[in-house]
Amino acid sequence: MLVRLTLALFWLLPVAAAQPAATPVGFTEARQYRVHRRLSLPGSVEASLISRVASEIAGLVTEVPVREGERVKKGDLLARLSERSLELSQRAAQAQLEEAEARQKLAERNFERARELSASGVFSRQQLDDALYEFRAWQGRIDNLRAEIDRIRYERERCSIRAPFDGIVISRHTEVGEWLKVGDPVAEVLSLEELDVVVNVPERYYRTVREGALARLTLDAFPGSFVRGRVSAVIPRAEPQARTFPVRVRIRNEAGRIAAGMLAQVELDGVFETGEGPRLATIVPKDAVVREGAELRVYVLDGDGTAKAVQVSTGAAVGAWTEVNGAVAPGQKVITRGNERLRPGQRVAGERVDYPLP
Predict the structure, then answer these.
(1) What class has domain 21-36+278-352?
(2) Could you tell me if 43 and 196 are in contact, meaning their C-beta atoms sit under 8 angstroms apart?
(3) pTM of the model
(4) Helices 84-119 and 125-158: crossing angle, nearest 10°?
(5) Which of 1, 14, 47, 304 lies most in the core, judged by the most C-beta atoms within 10 Å?
(6) Pick from 199, 358, 218: which is nearest to 296 by CA?
């Protein structure tokens, strides 16, 4: 009898050991909440700051160290012009200044001597005035030469054409060996630190849009994620045919992933679908919604301790929560932590995670 019991335990042990341990997860109950359906409008990302950097002086291009697509910092060199002729002009002006300063010192001594002789009656008033005029003339010559040297130094500084702000070179318009005239473009620099999303708002919603209002944006290039922004400008002039008003939403681009020309969907704070009041909806924390391929899913903690996948679609955003449409009912435990790698039917051990309602 003892032998049979031992054999039975021997065969059962591998079966028990083969069962995987339950995966720890966090869960939160789905809630019922009164929500508005916010108006979602398409928009296009544009640069809020773009500059076609031009040359302030004429000259021969000797260096263009940047390439298209290259990131630059404020003050980085975009192009350099030859300084040779300006250097020669500065040396000549400096030599003339030194000569004028020497002659001014001589004129000053002559004036002091003329004043002494005039006081003793040896020099006439005319001779004293001539000596004073000579001294002042050389002082004026010195001031003029110093201004000329300052101008040449300024132009030599302008031979180094630099980036006016942090950004990306999107095009360059000159090459080594070209002659630039005043105002000729050197390069075009685009700032990606802050961007504008331009949205065309229909006339019936125009009065509800306010400058400074918050906005929530989803970008077609980054499905499943969103960006926060603020309305930076409401343009009070409608497009003649569409009767829509341009609204600019300013967003930060700290990661540098967003590029000008991308498409976005924009929800403006306080702007709701016309004629639709608050309604009861099922909401879950946004962390509960996972994207698997082209589908959105919520994992529900089933009564038998397993994770059940439910396909959903999302609706209005409510703070850290979102409306879901699908087979999810208020009160069901939806998995909000550890759901990224779950599989349907996987055993889980749940722990409650609290999400405050807005």
Answers:
(1) mainly beta
(2) no
(3) 0.59
(4) 160
(5) 47
(6) 218
56-81+159-190 CATH: 2.40.50.100
Tens digit of pLDDT for each residue in 294-352? 788 999 998 888 999 999 888 777 778 888 888 999 999 999 999 888 888 899 998 99
Q: What is the DSSP string of 295-319?
A: EEEEEEE-TTSBEEEEEEEEEEEET
Residue matched to tokens 């809020």? 48
* Maximum Cα–Cα distance across the chain: 151
Give Cβ neighbours of residue 90 (< 8 Å, ≥ 6 apart): 149, 152, 153, 156
pLDDT tens sequence across 144-187? 999 999 999 999 999 999 999 999 999 999 999 999 999 999 99
DSSP state of 344: T
- pLDDT attached to residue 125: 84
Give the model's confidence band at 274: pLDDT under 50 very low, under 70 low, under 90 confident, else very high.
low
Pairing type for strands 227-234 and 279-285 reads unpaired
Task: Give the list of residues 6+ apart from residue 301 with CB closer than 8 angstroms, or none.
Answer: 25, 27, 307, 308, 332, 333, 334, 335, 348, 350
Indicate the domain borders of the chain.
Answer: 21-36+278-352, 38-48+192-272, 56-81+159-190, 84-158
Give Rg (Cα) of the chain: 38
Q: Which CATH superfamily is domain 38-48+192-272 in?
A: Efflux pump adaptor protein, beta barrel domain (2.40.30.170)
State pLDDT tens for residues 58-97: 999 999 999 999 999 999 999 999 999 999 999 999 999 9
Return the closest-CA partner of residue 187 out of 50, 46, 54, 47: 54
